[in-house]
Amino acid sequence: MDPNLVNLVSRLILLFGGDFFGFADTTAAKRAIELQGGELVSGYPRAISIGIALPGAIVDMLPMRSEPGVAVSYRVHCYEVINTRLDLISSSVAGLLQRHGYRALPLPASERIDDDRICASFSHKMAASLAGLGWIGKSCLLVTPQVGPRARWTTVLTDAPFVPQAGRLEDRCGECSACVEACPVSAFTGRPFSEGEPREARYDARACEFHLTQPAGDDRRVCGMCIYACPFGRRPGPS
Q1: Hey, which of 31, 57, 222, 237 has its CA 20 to 30 A from 75?
Q2: In CATH, what is the architecture of 3-233?
Q3: What count of other Cβ atoms lies within 10 Å of the Cβ of residue 152?
Q4: Do the beta carbons of residue 149 and residue 193 sit within 8 Å?
Q5: Under 8 Å between Cβ of 142 and 149
């Protein structure tokens, strides 16, 4: 792989405000990718995972999320704005790779394709995990050593021959169940992530979805308590 292209991609991500990025080989997960999103996404052998950290001051206010100002701040700055920023980064990275002769597919940071399964066409968390940026916690969120689950993610799929620069991180949650206990609808079973095990064994996505879509004043609820509660986000994690 041309090291100059790696540097160009890295600099572009940082220039546009990305906090995390890594390169992943997705061939070992091809079957799982195909089952979720079909052949359109499973045909790419590599992925660039890109993340932006959430504003910690807003996440720290989530126990007061019933207050309108907190709910609006979280919805706008921890979801809408960061999703837009991620989409701009992924589009720019894909354009750069295309100009260098490679196929590149930027995926939306947040776009559901299946209401029954409540899922997107591709798991950004899986790509970030394969890139060695974190591990899947008991909340089914990607947990990073630096900010815990306080980040949002996007992915650029490509055939550019990037070499993964890190191995997958081991699960560091241990006996901690802070996210499980913080969930207001008990959506998590507390089971650690196990590759090949269905999401339903760990997470009731429909219970979470129902909770978030209930009216709260003039708008929908926000939650994020599993994000708030994680010790890796609230204080530095163990080395």
Answers
A1: 237
A2: 3-Layer(aba) Sandwich (3.40)
A3: 20
A4: no
A5: yes
